[in-house]
Amino acid sequence: MAERDEIQRFTMAERLIHWAVAITFVYLVLSGLALFYPSFYWLASVLGGGPVIRRWHPIVGVAMFVFLLGMYLQWRRDMKLDDLDRQWLRQVGKYIRHEEGVPESGRFNAGQKLLFKTMSLMGLLLLLSGIPLWFPLRFSRSLREWSILVHEIAALVAIGGLIAHIYMGTAVVRGSMRAMLTGWVSRAWARAHHPRWAREVERTP
Amino acid sequence: MTNGWTDIANADVIVAMGGNPAENHPVGFRFVMEAKRKRNAKLVCVDPRFNRTAAVADHFVQIRTGTDIAFLNGLIHYALQNGRYNEEYIKYYTNAPFIVKEGYEFDEKEGVFSGWDESKKTYGDKSTWDYERDDQGYVKVDLTLQHPRCVFQLMKKFFARYTPEVVAQICGCSKEDFLKAADIITSTYVPAKAATFLYALGWTHHSHSVQLIHAAAMLQLLLGNVGVAGGGVNALRGHANIQGGTDCGMAYHNTAGYIPIPKAANQSLKEYLEAHTPKPLRPNSMNFWQNLDRFFVSQLKAFYGDHATKDNDFGYHLHPKLPEDPQTGKPENWSWAFIFDAMHQGKMEGFISFGMNPVNNGPHSRKVIAALAKLKWLVVVETFQTETAAFWKPDILKLVGLKPEDVQTEVFLLPAANFAEKDGTFTNSGRWIQWKWKAIDPPGEAKPDQEIIARLFLKVRELYQKEGGKFPDPVLALNWWYTNPANPSLEEVLKEINGWALTDVPDEKDPTKVVLKAGDQLSAFLQLRADGSTLSGNWLYIGVYTNAGNLAKRRSTEDPTGLGFFHNWSFNWPANRRIMYNRCSADAQGRPWDPNRPVIAWRNGKWVGDVPDYKADAPPEAVTTGLGPFIMLPEGVARLFVPGQFADGPFPEFYEPLESPVKNVLHPSHSSNPVAVVFQTTQYDKLGTPDEGYDIACTTYRLTEHFHYWTKNNPYNVQLQNEFFVEIPEELAQKKGIRNGDMVRVISARGEVRGRAMVTKRIRPMVVNGRTVYQIGMPIHWGFLGRGKQEGGLANILTPTVLDPNSFAPEYKGFLVKLEKA
Amino acid sequence: MPTVSLEVKAISAATTPAPGMKEAPRVAKLIDVSSCIGCKACEVACQEWNDLPPSVDRPFTGSYQTMPDLSWNFWQLIKFNEILRGDGRLEWTMTKYQCMHCADPGCLRACPAPGAIVQYANGIVDFVQENCIGCGYCITGCPFDVPRLNPQTGRVSKCTLCSDRVAAGLEPACIKACPTNCLSFGTKEKLLLIAHQRVEQLKERGFPNAGVYDPPGVGGTHVIYVLPHADRPEDYGLPKDPKVSWTLKLWKGPLKWLGHLIVFGGILGAFVHYLRFGPHRAREEDTGK
Description:
Distance between the termini of chain C: 79 Å
Distance between the termini of chain A: 10 Å
CATH architecture of the largest domain in chain C: 2-Layer Sandwich
CATH superfamily of chain A: Transmembrane di-heme cytochromes, Chain C
CATH architecture of chain A: Up-down Bundle
Helix content of chain A: over 70%
Structural class of chain A: mainly alpha
Largest interface: A-C, 48 and 50 residues
Structural class of chain C: alpha+beta
CATH class of the largest domain in chain C: Alpha Beta
Number of helices of chain A: 10
Oligomer: heterotrimer
Helix content of chain C: 25-40%
Order of helices and strands of chain A: EHHHHHHHHEHH
Strand order of the largest sheet of chain A: 1-2
Order of helices and strands of chain C: EEHEEHEEHEEHHEHEEHH
Radius of gyration of chain A: 19 Å
Strand content of chain A: under 5%
């Protein structure tokens, strides 16, 4: 087979699970903001009204956690940080400023890996702290109070991560979006953004 | 009540004993709270349980159930010993100075009064329980109170045994708690202070209940607390209109107005009146019952109308008479428990249970069920289906080992309207006859009581008319004058109870004057005539419906004296008098004992204030010459010593309940009331002893949350207390391995019930006569029918068939049980 | 029944100030624990007025107490408590428990649904059922643990101090039903005066620690108590020093601003980054076509 111009970055399963997490997460962010901050309550109307989001937010939350768990199992080997990644992180400023001299990334760069780990951890925290909020009558008041705090802080971290991720995936690293939609990237794209991964893919027949 | 609900607010000390007013009279209890707030009054609660009244009391004493007389006698002893009595009061207002016949005696070792016949276990000769008379038939008195046989000296001797130590020993309380209570209560012996006693079924449900109230009355008389504002001996009645029922002849032994029921022995009106009209015992005594002829003839006119004439003794021959017992020659007893005893013996064919639930009421539900099963027919008139109407159901009949097919009783359940579905009057504990208005129509085919009675009557009369019968005359002659004979209006009935003049009634002193014109409503007792010219269903209620109209409807909150008389609120029998015996509220000179709380006072030749309970124009000093303030009694004064009216003695002696965990420490040979009624006719008439393992004292009571066996049909009440429970002291529960909420079995010699254990600190074990005695208690409100958990938790399955010998009230409040974890 | 709208002082989840400008006299309910006889007339009056169904099959509570706790259909609960004092004296306290109508209501602070909880100028804190989303944050926010969720309707309810009756010039149903004047209703100023009079009386009658319970941690309440042992409110089932919790304050305070910073700051930051650095241009990026 002649050398194809493009290589497959994400399988169908990977893409499905990513988008499942993405869609549920966006819903959770929007409904969660409405539930947490009066200034965002207008989002509730967009999503069907207060009682509706109160009902669905925890259910969708559990769904997201299940997808997130799938994503974690699927990518956890690819997401291990190695020495080069640590070097990358030390020089993350250069990456942000698009400067030369950033260590080469594998299938995922260290920023992505860190985001993955953070999101996974936040997902777990949100699930655990969300249950007492879901069934307030079954838990003590102090546990509920702590849950609110944990849920809120975890949500804020996750929202921060999401904003960064969307920005990077759409505006900054062009082609990422196509990769997550179609599954394919150009060899050049691969060599540019994930050189170590590109070499690996090219070595294997 | 000698006083009234609103008057409680005038008290300085309130004694809640033999009653639990905070729980069972919460609305009236507002006046207790008012006294506490406004007068800084002290509330003393004496009870076997730390109840909801105790929770707001200033001093609580726990006593063993059934030992109230010992406690009260201890208080009397304390008052006598410490000079805490009102000497002028007892001299002129009680029989303290009366001299008692020679031969009267109380045997302290045996615990019986003179005249006791040990072989027959009865008082064969009560003739010594009487006063010494002079040659005119009047009682001899010694106003110095020094005569060794005067009532005062006899009391001192009689009560000397009830020292604080003995009281503590009997009641199981501490001596200190008793003394503190004694100090608070007897502190009201000073003229300007008053204590009120509030009691209810906790006193009346004993085998010595009448003597119990006697003891309380004696104490209140000694302290000068009867007839005064904030005083009195006050029975808190258990139903909205039980007072009205009592007033209007509900009990078997009298007709309306406490007129004695005619007995078979008195075959003519003359004989009857001679037998029942008392003779004055002191010169000048008002002896108001001397007017019995007026009361009774007017009542016969109400009963038989035109059929009651002078020539036929006003229909006296038509009036039912209490038959004689062929064995004893005494009138038969048809009080509550005797009815079911007779029924069980097969002496009754039918029974109409009107607003009663005898299966639950007892005493001893099993005996009642077995008795009902022997009837040919049973009519139950009720607002709900009751256990009585459904006694034939398998789970109820099982209690007496029968099956529905074994029972031939035909049962009719007639649906009745409840209180809110009909108008009429309620007479409250304070004797206020209050009109009430119908709120809603009764549901379905439910009918008001008077319509049910009237339709039954009309049908029976029709049958007598058509078919004749043994003695149709009383039914045919009955005065059924109502506009709507099938449903008499209660306005008309009240009018008739009050009564009217049938012809012009002339003044007795000046026959040229007319007191009443024919058709005028009566407005005073002595307008009644014994010649058939007046008609009155109940002389006591005269004044409730005058020419001015239905005064029971009055609702004025005007209270010019600030003492809570409210003379223009409804009508208060007798004669709109708010405080009975109120001549006693002023001293012999007519000066109120407490100038700040004058009930009546002598001013400008007349008595002003409340309606005087005295001859209206008699000057105050008359009280020193025999015109006593207790106008209904031939003595004219209150009876400390009761000369023969009671079956069990002239003074209240302490006796243990028939079932008691300990023997009477004063006289073990006569431990319990020697003349109590103890049925022995059926297998259900059994008593248990501590030796047989029945060693826990048990009492029954009612809860705020329920009204008898009625509210178990109302979801709101059921929610408040939805399950039968047994209150158990923590120590006993621990001993028996019972935890709060466990199911337990309570067993008496007569039956057993299962209920949930409510383990509490509010009943504490007590040391009685050197032995630890446990008490438990249970509310009565459950049964087999209704909402919530109705699983047969019926307290009266346990209670004994034992009665007080005077009132024939059952001993529901003290009996023995075993307790087991179920 | 004629009703007039009550002047609103505060609305839950409001982003703008409440419309009300008028002042109204502050009302209150006084509970004199020393004269409660536990008759439960208030409990039933409350249920009947508010059309709340009775729980006929409620569990056995082990005491005279009607329910183990407040519930969505039971807004007033008399708590029964047996206490053996050091001197061997038994006390059986009966303390009515219900919404305290705090001046600084934690429920209202916590509520995310605009208009689901309102505080009227007269001090009544009321739940507006149609705006309630059933999240239960008010249950967490309440320092007295009062609001209760109805699992069927998903709405939270509690004592309204009969705001409908009060608006029509009537006293709340529980007060109307109370036979002993243990409960009274009026302006808070007047009731505080009565409360202090009763406290003085209690002190004379052997309760040296009698006092008024009007906890300052929630800005005072519109339900106040006369307690014979005010030094031990927990004997009556009342929290010793209730406060709006610090977690709630953190959530509705600093964390709220942090949240807004993250959302809006994140978006703004990305935009500025793009303006400054643009997309990532890798060396070979455009060569791979």
